[in-house]
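Worked example 4.2. Below are the chains of a multi-component assembly; read each line carefully before continuing.
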Amino acid sequence: MNIEKFLTEKATQAVTALYGAVDPALVQIQKTRKEFVGDYTLVTFPLLKTSRLSPDATAEAIGVWLAANVTEVSGYNVIKGFLNISLADSFWAARFSDISADYGRLPATGRTVMVEYSSPNTNKPLHLGHIRNNLLGYSVAEILKANGHRVIKANLVNDRGIHICKSMLAWQLYSGGETPESSGLKGDHLVGKYYVEFDKHYKAEIKELMAAGQSEDDAKRNAPVMLAAQDMLRKWEAHDPEVYGLWQKMNGWVYDGFEQTYKALGVDFDKTYYESNTYLLGKALVGEGLEKGVFKKRDDGSVWIDLTPDGLDEKLLLRGDGTSVYMTQDLGTATQRFAEEKLDDMIYVVGNEQNYHFQVLKLILSKLGYAWADNITHLSYGMVELPEGKMKSREGTVVDADDLVADMVETAREMSASTGKLDDCTPDQADQISRMVGMGALKYFILKVDPRKTMLFDPKESIDFNGNTGPFIQYTHARIRSILRKAAEGGIEYLNAPAPASYLPEEVALVKQLVDFPAVVAQAGEQFSPAVIGAYVYELAKTFNGYYHDHSILKEPDQAVRAMRLQLASKVARVIRSGMQLLGIEVPERM
RNA sequence: GGUCUCGUAGCUCAGUUGGAUAGAGCAUCAGAUUUCUAAUCUGACGGUCGUGGGUUCGAGCCCCGCCGAGAUCACCA
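Applying the procedure described above to all two chains together yields the following structure tokens:
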């Protein structure tokens, strides 16, 4: 049940009974702040025109009416125009028993939503920026599932183009036939190594040509390796067997590498698209746009759309030689997906550097008359910056995804070893827990920040394991599970126990927080924000830790109270687990 | 230059459609363990919410100017 909605209705009835008809939008119910007594608060200021009384008098009158007419309301107080309403313990006890195993799974909506994320280039390994993308995409997909949508997780692999040819060429020229097997390097790292190698030789050649008297622009154009790479791209497009074979071989290495990284990150996809298959899509749309008069052809044969009336620029859609550009492809794939997958919504998890691209994409689609253009969302996330600014591959400041993951797991292992808590674990169990905790720290660190905002990562200060962190939440879960294990060992039955005579304020507070979970899931879904879930789960864990500190569960002598506390703890653990699952974070049974 | 985003404690971040005395964590300092896991808990310190106006009963949030940071405006993807 939605308590705020319930109280809004009741308060509207109260105002209507006391003062006559009122616009329900003016009846504002919100949670009571911690420093005041009460559960929910009615703000009376918007109602003063209706009541024609002072704020306090209005609040008092409504309070009297609610206390007399609504059985769930156990009391009220008035402070400076705010009416704080308290609900009865019996009401909260009923809400408590509502909390089921699948709490936080919202009813099915019948909508199909595609979430595209990750979308890597196959010329270099994944880095910290990709980690944010992958974690966000996966989590948002899980959150949308919990909101009752059918979700398709999609990955569009950028596996063709000049940048791929650069790695291929450099490998051909300088590797001596090195393979992942012969070098022991992960496939994506090996290919990335030759992408860097290309750049080194390219730069050297530019320098030489400039020393021989060419201008910088000419040198960049005429450098032999660049010409060779471009030649290779033409051969690839012509399906030259040798080039095509090399391309398949090297991309295969990269996919093996990516697969390992995805597995370590715990992300997956329902569909993988390859740009080599889709880059010709969209050309049909060009004809359609020309027919509708939305696009215009120039004398050189290139096709454009003029978006200056919308405050944007002119945008190219087809080159003079008839080849398509990024925008054309994206228009094509979007159209294809909505048709083939019968999508209701499409979410692109792509960095905010592409805000303009998606603005233009949506605008063109709506100009072409596709109503579903409005159902495209660009989930535009902020960059991850280092203390010295942006990551730059040239300056070697890129934080590699695989390295970071390994570091986190290793740190978690050292932390566990120093406490001695895993001493009686098998090596396998210890590995498992270190992995969960290390990844939990990394994932929570990234996901707790509002996706839209630029965030800072300081490698030197390494990610925390105390305070507002993943491990803090995991630890709370592990402690609860430990109590429940001990209860089971002691043969304590708590599931079907009678309700206790009364509840502590801390217990009611926990129930209130638990009851919020479905609304939090809904809010996270509306805002595409894992951070909303993170903040909620952290607060819940913190509240429980305070309660745990002050009140013993297993040593409570009153059996009904003890049973209730065990139930409460078990529900807290379950909601923590569910919430963390929406973030893609596992919670251990012990740590 | 045009468009867009951001600016909250020393640092990293929260702050619901505008509501009460702006909150956490880290760091610093002081405490708590004969106890169900101290990766925990309690307390202290720390703020002209970039800045100047405006709207409102009420502004961190809405509007305008300015300062500062970033992104983007490719026949790259």
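Take a moment to check your reading of the output against the notes. Residues 187-211 of chain A form the longest helix (25 residues). Chain A has a mean pLDDT of 93.
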